[in-house]
Amino acid sequence: xxxxxxxxxxxxxxxxxxDMFGDWIVSRAWGQIGTQFGGLKHMLAEDFSQAMTWVxxxxxxxxxxxxxxxxxxxxxxxxxxxxxxxxSLLEQS
Length: 93
Fold this sequence. Notes:
Strand content: 35-45%
CATH topology: q64v53_bacfr protein fold
Largest sheet: 5 strands, antiparallel
Shape: globular
CATH class: Mainly Beta
Radius of gyration: 13 Å
Helix content: 25-40%
Strand order of the largest sheet: 4-3-2-1-5
CATH architecture: Single Sheet
């Protein structure tokens, strides 16, 4: 699952996935649109339910800050593949 929020100049991207051990990982990237400024954080959830609770919390925070949800998709769509490409670029920098 990939979710992206944007404001006029900033973005937040969340990726929820399982690692090779079956653990649920919530990866959150944030920064300024069009720049290399930002950050990346990975969190290990106890289970899928906790991961989704974290996503709901992030959603509430971003909406309260004036962000708009611009993408919510499963991993198999072209939009998700582009979001994953952007996330991998952040990890490399």
